Amino acid sequence: MGPKRGVKTSCCSEEEKTEKVVNPLFEKRTKQFGIGGALPPKRDLHRFVKWPKVVRIQRKKRILKQRLKVPPALNQFTKTLDKNLATSLFKLPAQEKLLRQKKPIVVKYGLNHVTYLIEQNKAQLVVIAHDVDPIEGNPRLGAILHKKTAAALCLTTVKNEDKLEFSKILEAIKANFNDKYDEYRKKWGRWYHGLEITGQDQGKGEALSKGSRTEAELGSIFQREESVLVIFFCFFWFF
């Protein structure tokens, strides 16, 4: 009769199983990883590698940026447009072609020129590159102007067929940036701690919690002793 379905069968029966024979002549010795001993296990040698100077500078710069506090005036540039809104925004200047008329609709650029248009209340939309150190935002703005880079762009007028989409973009930008300016100008950026400082902070927090616990326990003990003294005094006075 064959075995039932769904039941695992071993290759050898219980009778054939034999206990493992241990030879008393060979002792089990733990590995000694000292000099001249056993080879140490494989480990991550990432911290022991001498990296190129460029890589070391990049990593030190990244750590410094994480440790330093960024003032709110600069930290507000970390709040950028999301992908969908950015793509719809960059479509507008691409569609604005130069027309043969007295005053064509063009994209204004240049820090001084954009500042002048803002002061004259002619600027309807101003786009600023959010990051200029690792050059990310500059080339994207420069591509609109057929240049390598650009720090800021400005739109004063748009075509009639694009006014509806332009108004939607303005509403979204106003809700995300202009209305939240008071919130952004008070918020500091970065200032991340390393493992050493976070461990110290955790230890301080545990010590404070332990101290508050001991204070609470001592307070309860003193209250108990006071109640015992009052009971003893009342009992003695009664007699």
Short description:
This is 60S ribosomal protein L7a. This protein has helices at 53-67, 72-75, 83-95, 111-119, 137-144, 163-178, 181-184, 195-238; strands at residues 69-70, 108-109, 125-128, 152-155, 189-190.
What's the structural blueprint in terms of helices and strands?
Layout (H helix, E strand, L loop, with lengths): L52 H15 L1 E2 L1 H4 L7 H13 L12 E2 L1 H9 L5 E4 L8 H8 L7 E4 L7 H16 L2 H4 L4 E2 L4 H44 L1
Antiparallel strand pairs: 1-5, 2-4, 3-4
Helix pairs in contact: 3-6
Function: Component of the ribosome.
Protein name: 60S ribosomal protein L7a
Family: Belongs to the eukaryotic ribosomal protein eL8 family.
- Specify the number of helices: 8
Helix and strand run: HEHHEHEHEHHEH
Give the overall pLDDT as a whole number: 74
For the record, the CATH architecture of the domain at 72-190 stands as 2-Layer Sandwich
Name of the CATH class of the domain at 72-190: Alpha Beta
Give the biggest sheet. 3 strands, antiparallel
GO molecular function, one term: RNA binding
Domain Ribosomal protein eL8/eL30/eS12/Gadd45: 95-136
Protein name: 60S ribosomal protein L7a
Family: Belongs to the eukaryotic ribosomal protein eL8 family.
